[in-house]
Design goal:
This protein has 111 residues and is mainly β. It has no helices and nine strands. Strands 1-2-9-4-7 form a five-stranded antiparallel beta sheet, with no helix packed on it. A four-stranded antiparallel beta sheet has the order 3-8-5-6, with no helix packed on it.
Length: 111
């Protein structure tokens, strides 16, 4: 699917599973290493999926002080939209329990 907004193009994607890398702290994720995220992406949609128990998850722009977190029930997901202003396309992800949550890029916007 592609959609157009003010000369921008939305692309659906389904990148590989990514773990936060630590429990209870914000960790960086380089989206250029994720499948389907090109260097000219300006925004990404990231799904956080919880597997075996309710968890708190989050996604935010690199360096942000915002606590962009959501409580997600077992077998549930939360979708976060994040600006990719960092040239390296690095964002930050959070999971209370690292082994319980997977993150995936489900879409992105190019200019």
């Amino acid at each position: 699917m592609q959609a157009y907004w003010h000369k921008s193009i939305y692309h659906e994607a389904m990148g590989a599973d990514h773990a936060a890398g630590a429990s209870g702290s914000w960790k960086e994720w380089d989206l250029l290493s994720a499948p389907d995220v090109p260097g000219d992406a300006i925004m990404a949609e990231v799904a956080a999926t919880v597997a075996t128990a309710a968890d708190i998850v989050g996604v935010r722009k690199k360096g942000s002080a915002l606590e962009r977190k959501a409580s997600v029930a077992i077998d549930g997901s939360a979708i976060f939209t994040v600006e990719l202003s960092d040239p390296a396309k690095i964002i930050e992800v959070f999971a209370t329990t690292d082994a319980n949550v997977t993150f995936n890029v489900v879409g992105y916007v190019t200019a």
